[in-house]
Design goal:
The structure holds two protein chains of two kinds. By secondary structure, chain A is an all-alpha fold. Chain A has helices spanning about 5-20, 20-35, 50-75, 80-90, 95-125, 130-150, 160-180, 195-225. Chain B has a four-stranded parallel sheet with strand order 3-7-6-5, sandwiched between helices. Classes of the chains: A mainly alpha, B alpha/beta.
Chain lengths: ~230, ~180
């Protein structure tokens, strides 16, 4: 294991340990909402035959609720006495901003992934047959929103709210692409057997691009960040 | 530090400050507020970059070479050891991983240092031991406890030490 991987692993483990109760709470909340969500649709044997409303319902719950959980966990990565202590140790260590960014970004992403998996499992347990594709779509949306929200932790005032707004907008844009991208034009003949391929592809590509640039931006901001006390 | 300040105009958190700490020298400075002391200690250790003026640690500029600066400076925060580290060993393993030190050797070294801090509360002893693990050129202490000054200075050895304080009387104990 390389030098930086060891440091990144240590930071991730320490932060996961510090936030284990928060992560557990997110998973419990995800399970509860998945059970309580008014699905009102029947199981569809072939997800490719699902209509627009069914697809919308499949994705709305996990994408928006777990996205919200991801944003909340991202926001608590900085601030508070407990995280301040870890932050000071991490900032005093001879590691680069981009490495610190990867390590601190991994924690809310792991928490959001756990919550999304918990949500999906609860959906199945409730007899709501959301196909695995929709789990992947929801997860991609949740991770992109979480990564965008991380930049808000390094800012104050209106800039912080702007990034939170961007994270929410990312979640909404990903949802709209996944559900409605197929309705904008005829499906190419090569994709005739995969009628939702355009929606799936567009959403995944959007989330990958947004996530990449959000992580990069977070790393650059973290390299310039000064961990001064709030008061 | 030469004319180093943090913040500007009405938002200045640290006014212009000039000081030099040479090898083996000890400098203790009192500041008007805890926040100011905190920021100056962070600037001296390379964790916070001065808004104006310059800070150099053995010729390295934290704005340009932050990792080199952080290898040379051992920072002991005012905050206590994070609660996540339930044992001394776990805390040392974490610090060893961040500073890329051999875990076994770091643990042996840490236990040796801790033996010399007998009587010092673990909340203050652990961070000092952690900062000394990487054998820093300069030790930066943010508002350390005056009651433990003699034992902590003895463990720190002959390296350069810069400490920030909330009052002149506390600073006197560390000078």
């Amino acid at each position: 294991m390389g030098v930086n991987a060891r440091a990144i692993g240590a930071i991730v483990m320490a932060r996961l340990r510090a936030q284990r109760r928060v992560i557990a709470s997110c998973c419990v909340a995800a399970v509860l909402v998945a059970f309580l969500q008014p699905h009102r649709i029947f199981a569809v044997a072939n997800p490719l035959e699902a209509d627009l409303i069914t697809r919308g319902v499949w994705l709305a719950g996990p994408a928006f609720f777990c996205g919200l959980l991801g944003i909340v966990v991202a926001m608590i990565q900085r601030g508070g006495e407990r995280m301040r202590q870890l932050e000071l140790l991490e900032n005093a260590a001879p590691i680069f901003g981009r490495e610190l960014a990867r390590a601190t970004a991994a924690v809310p992403c792991i928490a959001a992934t756990f919550a999304t998996v918990a949500y999906w499992i609860a959906q199945y347990a409730a007899g709501f047959a959301a196909p695995p594709t929709y789990f992947v779509l929801a997860l991609a949306s949740v991770l992109a929103a979480t990564l965008v929200a991380l930049s808000a932790t390094l800012r104050r005032g209106s800039a912080r709210w702007l990034y939170i707004g961007l994270a929410c907008a990312t979640s909404a844009a990903a949802y709209l692409m996944a559900v409605y991208a197929d309705t904008f034009g005829p499906v190419p003949r090569q994709l005739a057997h995969y009628p939702d391929a355009i929606g799936v592809g567009t959403e995944l590509a959007f989330c990958a691009i947004v996530g990449f640039f959000a992580l990069r931006q977070y790393g650059e901001a973290l390299a310039r960040y000064d961990p001064i006390p709030e008061s | 530090m030469r004319d180093a300040a943090f913040g500007s105009g009405a938002d200045a958190l640290v006014a212009r400050l000039t000081l030099e700490v040479n090898d083996g020298e000890r400098i203790a400075r009192a500041f008007a507020t805890g926040r100011e002391a905190d920021i100056v200690a962070l600037m001296a250790s390379g964790s916070v970059k001065a808004t104006s003026g310059s800070v150099f640690i053995d010729g390295f500029d934290p704005k340009v070479q932050p990792t080199q600066c952080k290898r040379l400076a051992g920072y002991v925060p005012h905050e206590l050891v994070p609660l996540e580290f339930s044992t001394f060993e776990r805390y040392i393993e974490y610090r060893a991983a961040l500073w890329n030190l051999d875990a076994e050797r770091a643990l042996g070294h840490a236990r040796h240092l801790l033996e010399h801090l007998d009587g010092v509360h673990e909340s203050f002893a652990y961070p000092l031991v952690g900062a000394l693990l990487a054998d820093p050129m300069i030790l930066v202490l943010d508002r350390p406890q005056a009651a433990y000054a003699s034992r902590m200075l003895a463990v720190a050895g002959t390296r350069a030490i810069f400490s920030t304080h909330a009052s002149q009387s506390e600073a006197a104990a560390w000078a």
